Amino acid sequence: MIKNYIKTAWRNIQKRKFHAIINIVGLVSSMAFVLLIAAYVWQTYQINSGLRHQDRQYILQSEYKKTGIGLELTTVGALPKALREEYPHLVANYYRIDGLTCIISNGTAVHEESVSLGDSTLLDMFGFELFEGNPSKALTSPFSVVITESAAIKYFGKKEVLGQNLTIRNFAGEKHDFVVTGVLKPTSQNSVTELNAALSSSIFLPIASEAYFGRNVDNWNTLWIAGFIELQENVQPEQLAIPIQNLLRQHANEEVATNLIPQLKPLSSYYLNDNKGAIRQLTHVLVLIAGFLLVMAVVNFINFTVSQSFTRLKEIGVRKMMGSNRLQLILQLTTEYLMLVWIAGLGALALYPVLAPLFESIMLTALPDIFELPVSFFVYFMLTVFFLGMLSGLYPAMKLSQNRLLESLKNQLTNIQQKHLIRRILLFTQFTVTIVVLIAAVVVSRQVDIFTKGDLGYDKDYLITVQAPRDWSEAGLHKIELVREQLRALPYVKNISLSYGVPGSFADGIQQVQKVGSEDEVDALMITSDRYFSDTYNIPLLAGQFFSSREEATVDNSKLVINNKAAKALGYHTPEEAIGQQVSLFNNRFTGTIAGVTDDFYANSMHSASPPVIWFSINNNNQYRFLSIRLKAGSTFDALTALEKNWKQLMPDAPFEFRFMDDTIKNMYTVELQLQRASQIATVISIVIVALGLIGLTALAINLRLKEVGIRKVLGASFRQIIMLFSKEFYMTFFLAVLLGCPLVYTLMDKWLANYTSRTELHLGVFVLPLLGLVLLLFFITGGIILSVVKANPVDSLRNE
After folding, report:
1. Cα→Cα distances 175→163, 168, 421, 766, Å
2. Is there a contact between 660 and 629 (Cβ–Cβ < 8 Å)?
3. Residue 194's CB: how many other CB atoms inside 10 A?
4. Which of 49, 283, 339, 527 keeps 20 to 30 A from 632, CA to CA?
5. Residue 352 CB burial class (10 angstroms; 0-12, 13-18, ≥19)
6. pLDDT of residue 728
7. Which of 9-23, 412-426, 514-528, 787-801 has the highest mean pLDDT?
8. Transmembrane residues, as ranges (predicted)?
9. Per-residue pLDDT reduced to its tens digit, 618-637
10. How far is Cα 434 from Cα 428, in angstroms, rounded to an integer?
């Protein structure tokens, strides 16, 4: 019996190829997108799942009652180790990272790398395996190093490098050989080796080498250490609250002990919840978009199937007359509809390897290979396909099978008004979803344009940043300043500035600034730089000078520069009023004079408002990380060639690895860019589904009323009258969908935009232009099909009457 159902279903599909193709294309396009989104979401939720005991592991972060003390991402360096040693019944293991950036070389291979200076517990705690080396001793000796397989190939051209040397330069400009004691096997994506964009390492050094880098991880005043702890079984993180406070009171200074509130973040969900849960929110939105598309495809399928009812009535009547009962008819029709959905599902699976590279390039993220996905993934997908098949096919099958025998043979449908109402409801749902997806895509694109093309308060064009080799001695600062002046003399270079941070990577921290004699404090972002920063970034100077004029040979180290927002927060009514006033920093340990006031600018991303800023002269601490280079317009290639050539002559041991500020800014909005591209893909697919549905429904409606069209033409009906006859139902349904869709998408997007201080406006044009595009699509599809019928000779449709 089942075999007969399948054969009959296949015969009916072949008989109605046009309608079958429309249904399958709509379903395949939506299912393929859903499959790609599902793979991306599955992969995202797998991050950190491969770590040993990840369900008991936590990242120690910090919340401070008073700003300007430490970083939220990190913790007190000595704390994780002390918890393990003094409370072993609570803490089973720990690991700490002091993130460094060092120049590493091996003969001709020279690179600037992010390096993790950490505990020897790395391999055992997280279950990482070595391709070569002894896991228990790999990170115990000074001047040893563990590297990944990719790093081994990068520096040595092979994986078998045990005992080889890498030369690593410290912050004093000294060099020392480190012996490779282990080669790490590839690991699944995790938040240990890739804590964030700034701390993603392929080079791991033991804490035993910390003296060479001038670090002291075990110091209770070291506040920039990324700390991980693993709890004993059945221990809850709340049980560490009192032990942590006890340790801080016993060992940390009073300022840290009274202001630090440690936060234990579960490692298992850290990636999803980091950056205010941006990744988790993105996955939710992508799932919602995929759900919308799936609903559209299913609605299109049901609508099309119900609309085909007239063409199947005689067939149903004959089957009933031959003895088929209602259950058999339902099974036969459901089998046919299930087969269509299954073909679409298999087509989506077949398209996955083809579309995955395109999806990766558009979404800027890698997808797992189809063979890397677990069996459960495909089981859920197949169950979803089966459910959609039943959902899509069962209702039309039940409606057709309940028609009375005599009416079926007469080609009449029982409850025809109910049938038209259902079709309109389904079409209304489809139009509403399309309107929501299309307008949402427009809003997201406009918001991303504000981020990437908006006024940042500085000029990002023709601006590159280069990480400078660190030598924070007096001689090292003097040398890099000479390099700066020699590069500035190149004809393609407009200006150069030396600083500790650059937009998107300001790591100087928040400092509390107060006017001398006042107790009111202002939280301000501190930027350590030279006197050329504002000129290089084209930040307007509102009053005074940026540390000093160019005519002055040296910079007075007591001079400071603030932005307008900081000036107002300090109580100065005008930028000019702030010039010459004294302010204190570092809990009154430093007093400086305001030399200049700049206009406000976005120091980091536009997710939050531009902050108060205070510039601190680089000559006070000799610490720098970047050279920002302003190129002259129209000479980018020649400028980069000249810069690289001179760089190698001036600093042969340091790689010339630059980055355009445009790219830096785009990387600040990776989540928004992914959302923009996903919404654009969804828009295209939704329009394709709607177009296919309109083509099918219009063609079907006309085929069922060909004789009526012929009679109307003979009686003198115009093209406009005929087109209105067939399309008024579509336009009326579309108008009702606009009444629901516009308020709905306005509410959704207004809520989304509330997350940003700089946001696009939801003005009338945002809604009118997409709606006008949909109206034109509706007109051309319905009008084009109807025109082909109107042009036909009415004799052809009436000759059988």
Report:
1. 18, 6, 80, 59
2. no
3. 16
4. 527
5. middle
6. 79
7. 514-528
8. 20-42, 285-306, 327-355, 375-395, 425-444, 681-704, 730-749, 769-790
9. 988 888 999 999 999 888 88
10. 10
Residue 510 inside a domain? The answer is: yes
Angle at 752 between CA 750 and CA 757, to 5 degrees: 85
When pLDDT is averaged across residues 152-168 and rounded to a whole number, the result is 93
SS3 140: coil
Encoded tokens for 447? 């918001």
At 527, list the tokens. 């930027």
The answer to whether residue 194 sits within a structural domain is yes
Specify the pTM. Answer: 0.81
Largest CA distance in the chain: 106
Domain membership of residue 118 (yes or no) is: yes
Which residues, in sequence order, are CB contacts of 394 under 8 Å at separation 6+?
330, 334
Cβ atoms of residues 685 and 28 within 8 Å: no
Instruction: pLDDT band for 412, please (50, 70, 90 cuts).
Output: very low
Residue 72 and residue 62 in contact, taking contact as beta carbons nearer than 8 Å: yes
Token pair for 32: 């393929």
Alpha carbon separation from 550 to 512, 535, 537, 546 (Å, rounded): 29, 11, 16, 9
Range(s) of the domain holding residue 490: 470-652
- The pair of structure tokens assigned to 40 is 């991306």
Question: Are the C-beta atoms of 90 and 238 separated by less than 8 Å?
Answer: no
| Helix 2-15 / helix 326-363 crossing angle, nearest 10 deg | 60
Is residue 54 in some structural domain? no
Residue among 445, 438, 453, 392 nearest 672 (CA): 445
Q: Per the structure block, which two tokens stand in for 779?
A: 């007109």
Question: How does 249-281 read in b/e, with b if 16+ C-beta sit within 10 Å?
Answer: eebbeeebbebbebebbbbbbbbbebeeebbbb
Which residue, 690, 679, 513, is CA-closest to 586? 513
Last residue of a domain, one of 652, 681, 709: 652
Q: How far is CA 50 from the centre of its chain?
A: 22
Domain count, the chain: 2
Q: Which of 652, 686, 718 delimits the end of a domain?
A: 652
Query: Is residue 417 over pLDDT 50?
Result: no
Between 61 and 315, residue with greater pLDDT: 61
Angle of helix 719-753 relative to helix 764-790, nearest 10 degrees?
A: 150
Query: Quick one: 247 exposed, middle or buried, by C-beta within 10 A (0-12, 13-18, 19+)?
Result: buried
**Phi and psi at residue 129, to the nearest 5°:** -115, 150
